[in-house]
Write a structure and sequence with these properties.
Chains A, B: This is LacI family transcriptional regulator. Chains A, B: It holds the Pfam family LacI. Chains A, B: Keywords: DNA-binding, Transcription, Transcription regulation. Chains A, B: It comes from Pseudarthrobacter siccitolerans. 2 copies of one chain form a homodimer. By secondary structure, chain A is an alpha/beta fold. Chain A has 12 helices and 12 strands. In chain A, α5 (about 75-90) crosses α12 (about 295-310) and α10 (about 230-235) crosses α11. The longest helix of chain A has 16 residues, at about 195-210. Chain A is elongated, with a radius of gyration of 25 Å. Chains A and B meet through α4, α5, β2, α6 and α11 of A and α4, α5, β2, α6 and α11 of B. The first copy, chain A, binds a DNA duplex through α2 and α4.
DNA sequence: TTGTAAGCGTTATCAA
DNA sequence: TTGATAACGCTTACAA
């Protein structure tokens, strides 16, 4: 259990003052004579010196750290997002503290407090939708907040990175409509969430474009947690005039929904055409492979990190930025024309 | 951008000294008169005071943080593990800094340095297998290291949490053997890894128990990264005397392997009986649902966190501990008796 | 039981 | 271009 060398040890060994060493460490903070710089660098190397993050943080008042607040790392979408963000951050010398909320506002509030204690420079989050004042306080304390995937309508002045939710839902729905389907089930997130709203909006817009009326019974907004997807599938298929198409636009409920379809023994696409939101790695391993809306996770990660880092370095105009990236529709084999669908 | 209150502000407002406030914050560090304690608590609440983590870290020399170093968060196994660890840590007031190595020793070394800078109290990791001296240095600096899932043979004095690898592979293999299969392919991790070795060991042990000789050609140790699983599948099935059973014991290569099976159009279990390591959420959504070895991820998470925290608080005997948890074999529909398998 | 004051390892200010 | 030295906010002897 040795003690690590400090900046003072380095200074002493190099025969200079601590300020010189500090300036070698942070070049933009001041000039250093080339000769001394070499000497210092040599000593640093020899001693294996590394600056203590805590000391720097205390002095600077801010940590080279961003908080990542996601709902559920076990969800492949968030997991991949986290993977990319962690990776990207590392290349900028920034560490990521990960928190999970499990969609619970209390845990979210807790997480934010903790991140505040750590004086993180920024937070990337998929907000639960609650804690509006908490988010505001966080911002007022100088923490840069970027929402990814979802946002909170009440909260202005916050950067947002998401896919084109309205458009994605519209395209998926139009695909079904153009195949002749007229009763299309939609399983989406809570209407209280930005994604839930936007995707319903897109679904409706598509119907309007095709001059088809929408049946409220076919729209199911279910919570992200729990088995709501499966239940919705069950009740949709139990409808007297059951849908011939199904769009699962709630990323967290895709698995639950598909599991139920498999359990019930629904033949896809003969009995039901299916499109799901988000290209989980397994969606092409089912039979048939599922047609999906593929979220460009890498883009989401890169942009959100770019935004926090940009704000951290004050290199961005103050106006909040909203970045919407396009999500691809990836047709596979889970949709077929209505004519070929079982006529009952 | 307000400035947060400090311990001094609290002390002043409560009419006490900073040490009293500190003692209220850390009860075990000394006594406080009940009356003053209440007063301080009141002020803390009123001011919304929260101690700055960096200041405490600098003072005590250690952070209430553990580093989590995994190979790839995009892999559902690691993602779920991370989710549980983060969750569990939170309930102990500990934060988790996540790093990914992508199985690259350089990135791993980098990550360890960074964690050292942060003075983390402990590290939970799935080591690449390299960086032995780096791990040792980390320990010598007082950082508690716990390996989870895999370990490094050369490194003693380190806690390890894993499944019963030998036994799991043995049980999977015996299942196949008892179904009459005599040529069973094994796709596993590199022999340089503890899991790779152990699982091959279990595979061989099962064969011995059944007095069946093993064909080296059937054993494929492939890297965790890349498409080695798929390639191994391809070459195994191209063998003149091709296997009738396949065990994929490389968690990171399951997807690649199964994808290839699907691409080739192999009928499971008619053409090939299959067992894969790790119950990814989708393994029961394929057709047929796959028989799997299920790793008790929650147990792995709980134990590894328990170990780091235990060591952090010095509540554990110095001897390194090895915890092996049992992995369940979950039979589904991807294995059939040899007699029913296509006779060629 | 309480208060004073000395660290902890950086950065930043300001003379020199 | 350099070097003292004062923060930064907390913990912890040590005195009282």
């Amino acid at each position: 259990m040795k003690k690590a060398p400090t900046i003072r040890d380095v200074a002493a060994a190099a025969g200079v003052s601590v300020s010189v060493v500090s300036r070698v460490l942070n070049p933009e903070s001041g000039p250093v004579a080339p000769a001394k710089r070499e000497a210092v660098l040599g000593v640093i190397n020899e001693l294996g010196y590394r600056p203590r993050a805590a000391a720097r943080e205390l002095s600077v008042g801010q940590a080279l750290t961003v908080g990542l607040v996601v709902a559920d790392l076990a969800n492949p979408f968030f997991a991949q997002l986290a993977d990319r963000i962690v990776w990207e951050a590392r290349s900028h010398g920034v560490q990521v503290v990960v928190m999970t909320t499990q969609e619970d506002p209390h845990l979210e509030a807790d997480s934010l407090d903790t991140l505040l204690d750590r004086s993180v420079a920024g937070v990337i989050a998929t907000p639960t939708g609650a804690n509006v004042e908490k988010w505001e306080r966080l911002q007022s304390m100088g923490v840069n907040v970027v929402f990814v995937d979802r946002t909170i309508a009440e909260l202005e002045d916050v950067d947002v990175v998401s896919i084109e939710n309205v458009d994605s839902a519209r395209r998926a729905t139009e695909h079904m409509l153009s195949l002749g389907h007229r009763r299309i089930g939609l399983i989406t997130g809570p209407v209280s969430t930005s994604t839930g709203q936007a995707r319903i909006h897109g679904y409706r817009a598509a119907h309007e474009a095709f001059s088809v009326s929408t049946d409220p019974q076919l729209i199911r907004d279910v919570p992200f947690r729990g088995d709501g997807g499966g239940d919705a599938v069950g009740s949709l298929l139990a409808l007297p005039d059951r849908p011939t198409g199904l769009i699962v636009a709630n990323t967290a409920q895709v698995q639950s929904s598909v599991r139920r379809l498999v359990q019930i023994g629904v033949q896809i696409p003969e009995d039901l055409s299916v499109i799901v939101f988000d290209d989980n790695p397994w969606t092409e391993l089912t039979s048939p492979p599922l047609s999906v809306i593929r979220q460009p996770i890498g883009m989401l990660a890169v942009h959100s990190l770019e935004l926090v880092l940009g704000r951290m370095h004050g290199k961005l105009p103050p106006a909040p930025r909203t970045i919407e990236v396009k999500a691809d529709f990836v047709p596979r084999s889970s949709c077929s024309p209505l004519l070929l669908t079982t006529t009952r």
